[in-house]
Every structure is written in structure tokens, then in C-alpha cells.
């Protein structure tokens, strides 16, 4: 090897869309900086290229404001002088759905391709940890290299910053760790003092960490930085005074290609990267601003499991697929998924704007679903004898027997439900209210008159429906003014009962203690749910225990209401405790504020999990609230969570924790972890899992306790020297930014399911429970009693002329051990995309039965065709396949 090591200097900007500033602030600055960058690149051919953070959204934003500059921008992109993509935005990879990560890359790469080029690097300079499936996802887009900063322990590197990163499905990607972050060359200068005291020590450090290569990567940029137009000249000057290192302007692609072409890097690092030795991961940021994370999760589930598959069903029946609206929805979601945004470590103004955007997206989704359900149902009704119908849509690829909660409107108190063969449908009336029809104005010859409109009943039901067709629907009839034995109005039974049950579980509240009985083996968990409350002396990035403070445990459950029906039993309980108002009151031992938690347990007939919902009207500041499950599973070493397309395991006790401070870790490696949808513990004889809707942080303990962090309540963006994070404040460290809205003084709901059984641990079984708990269905009633039940119900819309069948299935999959993560229109609109994954340790195969004569093709994540499939489709363990399905006859 040559004596002089090559230093690949990569000029770049890391562009936060929003943070302690708003997206509007960012866009104004973007217009100034990007226009200046364009001029520098056009005027100086020596300035080889510039990386604009690997996200295409900021280029779109700039061109929305300056569309006349599209030719300048695209020329620079085509000539690889302005490097953008492959992301749409720099997404957090541990707080969003796996499919959101894939879509972010799909939009980024497709738009980049249209603009002339996108960077073929899985570039993640600043996200707080790396998802274990990123190597597989990058490989699926034809991306060969990754450059990441955070999440790697030094002993994992084995003396070399270049390594092979491997996903749980065995897919690999060539990776470089930017050990000193993305800014070691930010202030590059040829001044001798800078070269000798700053630059050379940096290069010497990086040299020692590149034992198998003569090449060194030196990122030269920072947050929202303005390009240094003199950089080519500065590099020439440094080279003239230094002989040990040869600096050259470059980019990430060139560095990786040059470094890996003649080298044989053999070190393999597997899975999730969440180490916090040299770069902060902010392990407890996953419970910061729960309101943002919860709403994002609700919307992701609604898009992926209801909206898109429902649109596919509609398209197969001749209804237009709303591609442009869905594109717009996803792009707005990607803005929220940027690492600062979804983490909630922002100013109050920024977080308020994020919630506003999420609510706008949620409203748009509800509108599209409303219109689509109405168009389908009205076309279905053309072939029905009865006018009063409701339709249940199933968006899973298997036929289902389901016990669903829904709302139906009737003219009379008594009514019945029937299938099309006039067989009665079982249901419980949970709640029934008479609603006045109001008044309307009628113009007569004598003038305007007020006329009373007949009232109606709003019924909240649990309905038991069998054999709902896969990826399709079934139709049912409402018979008004009829009494049936199987219609049972549930009675509040507050004093006479302190327990509820179904076939598998019994929950009992006795002497303030909640117990869970698993009926199959008669195993009982005492105090199976309690709450933990503790002071939080941290900031928006990290929880921090208050010195001298100890957790308080809330165990005094009190039954409020019990409802019992044939299909569902519900128990509501409350917990109360006296707490200090804030951290100063806590220091002074002033426990004068009453804090309450209301919990609803719901056991439905036929379900193998327990539905739990907590309602908290938070009136306390500077604290953390967790729910603790006592599982009676002892001496466990690992917990398990879903991540990507399978289950990964976490250490119960992080081996690095015992001496993290003496080894000068930048943050304590606490055993608090992220989850996508569920967390579980097992001793291979018993399993306990919690499946959440928006709760993203958990901790498991050796004694069998499992904790879900419901929320953290803090009022400042950054603090210096907190207990688990020594040194400077994260974010901005020279200004205190107060965030009173981050105290979350408002009413919040927390929803999850509990799964418990005595059997061996099967990841696929918990995935199935997860898919049963997270809604994959929609209901629509053809009615005119309440025209405000859904967002656009009041308005006229174009309705299909043709009648549709009353029962329909677009396609089915014959193996219930595989799952779909998406069902959508292909990006090129030439078929539908179905992504099927196998979370188990065993290879699975399946057939797809399609309603029309199909052509099934394997595609990559970019949706380019790989090969046509005939016969059974195979999915490797912990892996996935992406299929494009085209009807040979052609869709309507």
C-alpha cells in the first residue's frame, strides 16, 4: 500500500426538515442555501459534487417554490454533481412501520430516477439506531452499500470501520461506520494550526480504525450548513503541506466502490444497531411525545391495513384507485417520519405542526375510505332484496370469523341482523341511545315551516360474523322492529360482579388486586397489572431518574362498571394516587395532587387475547408512567420483539451496562428497547406478549416483569449532564428551549392487547394475534338516519351504475403462517403489489387463488420484475417476497 493514505472528503449538508425550528423556517433557509449551492457548482468545475443529505423531499420542496430552476437542478443531478436520494426523507427506522421504510425508499428512488439519478447508498447519518432489516431492504432496491453513524460498539468493529451488515433473513450489505459522525471535516482549513491540532489527529484516529484499508472517509458537513465554495482550493493547499495523507474531493459512492473493490472485509455485524458507546441513541426517546407516536401508528395501520387493500378491492370492481391522493398522503407521512419529527425532540411549535399535519392526513384517509365504502355498498345494494344492509370488508388474505365492534343506526329499539340466507347473526348491544332527528325547514305557500324529523337509535354492537371472504366482503341485512333472543342489551352490573371471562381467560378484581386466570391450565397471575410512576429529570431526548427518587407503584384497583353479554364482557377499573405537581414539589415532598388511571378490560368470545385500554387525564409534570405486568415467567435472559419481517431478541441485562461510565460511553446502555408492534417474554413453557397500538418502548426484567412505557412528561428540549447521559445537552446546547406542551397535560388513551398461554414460543402465533388485534376490516351501513356518521356522508358523490355481487373475494392465500405487509396498486399502475412475509424459523410455501386468471411475477422492492412464478410460492425463514399480480383478462 502507498505511504500516503487517501482521504475521501465528502462535502454535504445534513438537512433537518424541522427541529427546534419549523418546516417553514427550514424551507426559507433551503431556498437561500440551495440556490447558492447551484451557483457554486455551476461556476466551479473543480467542485466535483455535493451530497444533499440523501433525501429527495428537499429538492421537491425547492422546486415547488422555484419551478423555473428544474433544468438547472436536474442537470446537476444527472451529472452526479448534486447527489440526492435514495430516501424521500431521512426516516427514523425504529419508530415507523417496516412498510413505511420501504415506501420512503420507493418514493425517493422513483422520484430520483425521474430527476436523472439517485445516490446508490443506504445513507443514515443521524437516525437514532438502525433497523435490523435495513440490509435486506437496501438489497431489495439494488443498493449495494450503506453508510451509517450510530448504533455500533467498538468491539463489534474489530478495528475496521468497513464491515458486512446482515439482516435476520441473511441478506447482506457492504457498510461503513462514520465513526466520528458526519461533521469531522466541517471546518476544513489549510491554516497550519488547524491542520496540526485538529485535522491530523482526526485522520490518525480514523487511520487506526481502518486497519484493512488505505482509504479514509472524511464527511465534511453539518446541519443546514452552507457550502464552502473554497473547498477545492483548501484541499489543494492541505495536500501541499502534508505528505502522509492525500485529500481528494469525493462522494460516498466513489469512496465505497474504491474501498471495497480490492479489499476483502470479512467482519460481519448482524441485526439491529442500537449501541450508544460513541454516538447517542436516546433509548428512551421512544416514549417522548406519545401523542405524536400514537397518532402516527393509527394512521400507518389505517393506510396499510384498510385504505390501500380496500382501494385494491375497489379497483378490481371498477372503482378508480385514488393514486394521487395516496401519493400525497405518503409524502406527508414521510415528513413526519424524519428522525427528529417522529421522535418528538422539537420545539412546541414544531410538534404542534406535526400533530396538525397528522390530523389532516387522518381526515383525508377517512374521507377516501368513506367514499370507497359508500360506492361499493350502493353498487352491492342494487342486487339485494332489502334496502337496509351493511357490508363488512375483510382486508386480510384469509377468510375470517370475527367478533367486531361497530355502530349501526335503526329506526326502532328492537331489530335483528341476518345474512343473505336469512340466518340470524348473533350480536350484543353494548350501548343504545335514542337520537332526536332534529328539525328541518320546509317552504310552503304560507311561508317557512319547521317540521320535526323522526328520531332513531344509535347502537354500539359487538357482532359475531363467520366466513367473511378473504380480501373481499360479505353483505348483511338489518330487520327493523323485530325482537330476537340473540339480541341482548347488556346491563351495567357494577355491584354484583368483580370479574369477567371468556373461553380462555378470567380477569378478577379483588381487594384492590387484579388477577389473570388462564383457564386451559388453571394458571393464575396475581397482581398481573400494576402501574409505576417516577420522576423524570430528563429532557426531550432522554428519561433521567431524579437523584433520591424511588418509583411509586399504584395497585389499588377499584371496579367502576362491568358489562356482560354473550359475545363480549367488559370491566372498567380505576387506580388513583396522590402525586407532586412537578419536580420541585416532588423534591419538597408535596404529594397533594390526585392522579387517576381508568382501565377497560375487554374479553370477546373467540379471541385468544385480552383487549386493554387506559385513559389518563394527565395533570402531573416531570414524570414517567409505565404499566408493569407480573408474568410469573422466571430467570429469562432475553425478550423478543417484532422488527421488520420477524422477531429479534434483546438482552434482559445489557452486558455493557456495568462499566459504561468508566469506559466513557456517551450514554448509559440501559435495557430499554423499541418495539414495532409487540414485545414478549418466554421460558419455552409459557409465553406472555403485549401487542400495542402506538406504545413504542418497553423493558423486561429477569424476574419476569414486563414494562410498557405509556408516556414521559418533560418540559425542556435539552439539558446538560443528566444521570444516564453525561456531558452536553443533546440538540442545541447553548440555549434552553422550554417545551411546556411536552408535559402532555391532556387526556390520552393507551391501547394494547395481552396474550398469555402455556406453550412453546412461536413467533408466527404472536404475529397472528397482532394481525387479529390491529384492525384489518371496515364496516359500512347504507342508511340515511345519521348523515354525519362519516366525514363525507352528507354529500352527494358519483355512484357506480353497475351492480356488484353481494359476496366477493379478490384473492386468498392458503397458508395462515404467512402474512402480508402490503396490498396496493403497483407504482407503475400495471398490477397490484402484494408483499408476503414469513416470520417463522421454517420455510413456508403457499398458493394464491385469484378471482381472475392471474399472472404472478416476483419483483424487487423497486417493483422491477425478476421472474414469473408458477406453482407454489416459497418464502424463506424470517424473509419476504414481493409479488406483482396482473389479471390476464385485464382489470376493470
Looking at this protein, list some descriptive labels.
Glyco_hydro_38_N_sf; 4 domains; ten-stranded antiparallel β-sheet; 892 residues; Immunoglobulin-like; alpha+beta; globular; six-stranded antiparallel β-sheet; 7-stranded beta/alpha barrel; 33% strand; Beta-galactosidase, Chain A, domain 5; metal ion binding; Alpha-mannosidase
Q: What does this entry look like structurally?
A:
The structure is a single chain. This protein has four domains: 5-279, 7-stranded beta/alpha barrel, CATH 3.20.110; 389-489, Immunoglobulin-like (Sandwich), CATH 2.60.40; 492-773, Golgi alpha-mannosidase II, domain 4 (Beta-galactosidase, Chain A, domain 5, Distorted Sandwich); 812-892, Sandwich (Immunoglobulin-like), CATH 2.60.40.2220. 23% of the residues lie in helices and 33% in strands. It has 15 helices and 50 strands. A ten-stranded antiparallel beta sheet has the order 20-27-28-29-30-39-36-35-32-33, covered by helices on one side. The protein has a six-stranded antiparallel beta sheet with strand order 26-25-31-38-37-34, with no helix packed on it. It is globular and about 95 Å long. The model has no long low-confidence stretch (mean pLDDT 94).
